Amino acid sequence: MFAFALLIHPTCWALTPYPLFGPPPQEPAVTTYKAVPGEHAPATYGELDNWLAQRARVPSINMLGGDFWLVSRFSPGRTVSDWVVMFDNTYYDNATILVLGDDGLYRQFESGADTGLNDMPRGTAAVTLAPGHHYAIVIHVMSKFYTALPRIDVQTRLQYHKRRASESALMLGSLGVLFGLGIFILFVGLWIRDRSYTLYGCQALILVVGWSFFFGVPQGWLGINTEPINFAQWFILLPVVHARFTIRFLDLRRHAPRMANVGYGIALVSIMALPISLFFPSLAFLIATLLVSAVVLFSASMGVWSLLHGVRRARFYTLAFMAVLLPGTIILPVNFGLVPSMVDNADLLTLIGNSCEAMLLAFALADHVKLVEDGRERFRRGMQEAIAKASIDPLTGLGNRLAFNVMIEEITRRENTDPALGTWQIAMIDLDGLKHVNDNQGHERGDELLRAVGEGLARLGDLIRAFRLGGDEFALIAYGDELGQQRLARALAELDRTLRESDYPDAGISFGICSASTDQRQFSSADFAELIREADRMMYVHKSRRRMERVADRPLSELRSD
C-alpha cells in the first residue's frame, strides 16, 4: 500500500528528481534511439539533425540490455564556462559520451563498468561551454542490462565538485559502516558460536562487495576486471544468507514453522538463480531485484508479525527494515523502468538505507545478547536459590549435610596462605535428651529444642559456620588459633549450661573439637575426613563422661529403681 501511494504521488512523475546530496543539476530531455552495430556518431553539431533523421526512435531503453543512442540538447544559461556532463542513474557496461557544439566543440569520453574509467559515483565528462551557443550530448551506451532509466545531467564544475564530495563521502562512509559492522559481528558470531551473528556478518560483507561492484570500486579504483561476475550476482546471493538469518534470529522454526519454510524456499530459489544469472546475464539484475524484494518483504513482515506476537528481539529488527523499505520502495519501480527516479541518486540512498539497517540490526543483536544474558542471570539466580534451599535445614536455618560437604570442598580448593593466623577446626556436636523430650513432651517440643540449639550455634561468631547434619547431630567448621579453639569450647559449654538451666533440664550437648596442624597450608578431603573422625571420637568421649557424671549425681534410690 505504501509503494502504491508513492507511485501515484505526483513527485514520482516529476521531470526533475528531488536533490538529496548536493546542488541540483540541470536535466535536459533525453531522446532514445536504437543503435545498430557499425554505426558512428555525427562528427559535428551541424550533422546532428540529418543523423537523427536516419535513426529509429524508441520510447525508452530496454531494461534487459542492448545498444542505444541517447541524445540531449543543451544551451548554457549562465556566464560560467566550466561545465560537467554526467551520464548517471543507471548501471551500464560501456558508454561513449560525445559533446558537440555549434561553436565547433567536439569532445569524446569513455565511461562504464567494463572500461574501468567510471568516475564514481557516475560517469562524467568535463567540458568548456560558451554561453549563448547550442550544444548536443550524444551517448552510445551498451550494457547487458540497465538498472533504471538513464539520465543526462549538466552542472557547473563548482556545483559538481560539491555534489561529488558529498556523494563520495556518503558512499565510502556507508561502505565503511557495513564493512566494520560485518567484520565485528562475524567475529562475535564465530567466537560465541551463534549462527545468527555469523549469518548477519556474512550478509553485511556481501552487501559491501555488491555495492562496491555497483559503484565500480574493483574496476575503477583497483583496476580489476570482474567479468563475468558483476554486482547482480552478489545481490542474488544476499537472500540465501538473509533469509536464514531472519529464520534463526526470530526463531521462526518454533514460532512460525510455515513461514520459516517460505524463507528456506527463497534461499533455495536464490541458489538456483545464481548459475542462471551467469548463463543469461541480461536477466541477472531482474532476478536480483525480484529476489531481494522478496526477502526484504519476507523479513519485514516477519519482523512485524513477531513484534505483534510479543517477541522482544523483533523491536530493533523491525525498525531496521523500515530503514530499508523506504529507499527500497522508492527504487523498486525505478529498477523495473516503470517511472523515472524521484530522487537524484536512488542507488546511494539505498546504500545509506543498508548501512542504517546494519546499525539498527547491530542494536537488535546487542538487544538479543542482553536478553540471553538476562535469561542466564535469571537461571543462575534460580539455581543459586535452589541450591541455597537445598543446602539449608528448614527447621533450624543452619546449613545441612550438603552445605557441610560443599564448604569442605571449597576449603580444599584453596591454600591456607598464612598458617600463623590460624588453621581449620572441626567440632562434632550431639544433642542429648532429644528422644526424652519427644517421648514425654511431644515432637513439637522437640523441634523447639532443635531450634534453640540452632540459634545458639548460629550466634557463636562470624568465623564459625554451623550445620545440622541430621537428627540430633550438628557440626561446626571454624578458623582460628589455639585460643580461638579454647573460646569455642567455652562457648559450647555455655550453650550446654544454658539448655540445662532453661526449660530443657534433661537436654544438653556433647561435643568434640579437633584442629588441623598449624603449619599445614593445603588440605585434602582425606585430611578433613580424618579431622571429622577425630572430632567425632572426642565427642563420644565427652558424651560418655557426661553420662557418668549424671549417673554419679543421681540419688541412690533412683539407681536402685532403675
Automatic annotation (TrEMBL):
CDD domains: GGDEF (cd01949). SUPFAM superfamilies: Nucleotide cyclase. Its EC number is 2.7.7.65. Gene3D superfamilies: 3.30.70.270. The keyword Transport does not apply. It catalyses: 2 GTP = 3',3'-c-di-GMP + 2 diphosphate. PANTHER family: DIGUANYLATE CYCLASE DGCM-RELATED, REGULATORY COMPONENTS OF SENSORY TRANSDUCTION SYSTEM. This is diguanylate cyclase. It comes from Dyella flava.
